Amino acid sequence: MIKGAIIGSSNFLSSTKLSCKMGGNELKLISTCMVIVCWLGFTNAWADEKASKNVLDKGIVFYGGIQVYQADGQFSYVKDDDPNVKVDLDDLGLDENAVSPIIGGVINFGRRWTLRLDYFGYHDNGKATADFEFDFDDITYPVGTRLDSSIDLDLYVANLSYNFIRTERARLGVGVGVHVADFDLEVSGKASAAGVKTELGTGQTDFLGPLPNLYIMGAYSFTDRFVVRTGAGGMSLNSGDYSCSLYFSNAFVEYWPFRYAGFGAGYRYVTANIEYEPGHKKETYDVDLPGPVFYVTASF
Q1: Is 285 left (phi over 0), alpha (psi -120 to 50) or beta?
Q2: Residue whose C-alpha is closest to residue 64's, from 248, 221, 293
Q3: What's the rounded Cα separation, in Å, for the pair 205 and 181?
Q4: Domains delineated in the chain
Q5: Rounded CA gap, 123 and 11, in Å?
Q6: Which are the contacts of 98, defined by CB distance < 8 A and separation ≥ 6?
Q7: How far apart are CA 214 and CA 233, in angstroms?
Q8: Predicted structure pTM score
Q9: Which tens digits make up the pLDDT trace of 228-253?
């Protein structure tokens, strides 16, 4: 889902919320700019759509469907001279091939501004037996521990772009946006020795925070009803003991057999990474979320 912004210990995450997200002033500035552009462009957003049958000229387009993930993720914790032990999703019994719902929309304001909104996530529960000893949230899970794990990741995305190239068939724009990641990982363990089962406790990480990104988008309509959309972007930030990055790309093909409805398919890839290194330890959290998407789309 990302080599990225999202796995860690409780103490780490409480600090990350302050250090690895965009500052409040920057977030307010981007949000305010988006609202102003939307408000200014709303009054003439429909002029082009009424005069054109091209899908690219529609004022508002919504979509909903699924993404079939081929997820990959891991976290590691190194303290002093201890060995670097990396834990993958499959080590926790979490399914790396999962299906999750997606929704979103494209809003065109006037002739030049485009706002794209997306939601997608990754959710799973799993059981496994630990093949090696590892630490998570100050709990040590020895070899043979019965593990119960759950992962919930939701990503909310808003990207506003200015189309500096706009022709009858093509759009190409650049802009800014924000990814808001809501991530929760829980691992509980039960050890057994001499027939006696012992609850080791539950480790949990909980992360919620925005990360700004630069954005480039493009679209091309081969016919009035057949269109290709694409986008890419990302951002890397360093702040004190933290290093955070998130990058993404996507491409979608849509066919509209009806005036107000169609369907599409494509591929989306997101990768994020967080490193926390205060000096006496290093924590690394990575997630990749690639996979094909399938959806239906409609305009109003």
Answers
A1: beta
A2: 293
A3: 13
A4: 10-299 (2.40.128.90)
A5: 23
A6: 68, 69, 71, 122, 123, 124
A7: 5
A8: 0.77
A9: 999 999 988 777 777 788 899 999 99
Report the distance separating Cα 300 and Cα 296, nearest Å: 14
In this structure, what DSSP letter does residue 111 have? T
The token pair at 53 is 């049958």
Both tokens of 178, joined, read 């924000």
Report which residue type is found at 108: N
Q: Which residues contact 28 (CB under 8 A, 6 or more apart)?
A: none
104 near 116, Cβ under 8 Å?
A: yes
The answer to whether residues 295 and 264 touch, using CB atoms and an 8 Å cutoff, is: yes
Tokens of 55: 């899908």
Measured from the Cβ of residue 263, the count of other Cβ atoms closer than 10 Å reads: 17
125 alpha carbon, distance to own chain's centre: 19
Identify the DSSP state of 137: T
pLDDT band at 28 (very low <50, low <70, confident <90, very high): low
176 exposed, middle or buried (CB, 10 Å; 0-12, 13-18, 19+)?
buried
Tokens representing 154? Answer: 């939701």
223-228 average pLDDT score = 94
CA atoms within 13 A on the CB side of 40: 10
CA 271-276-281 angle, to 5 degrees, is 135
Q: What angle is formed at CA 209 by the lines to CA 13 and CA 159, rounded to 5 degrees?
A: 155
What is the C-alpha separation between 296 and 158, in angstroms, rounded? 20
Q: Percent helix, strand, coil in the chain (nearest 5)? A: 15, 65, 20
Q: Is 65 helix (H, G, I), strand (E, B) or coil?
A: strand
Residues whose CB is less than 8 angstroms from the CB of residue 83 and which lie 6 or more positions away in sequence, other chains included:
none
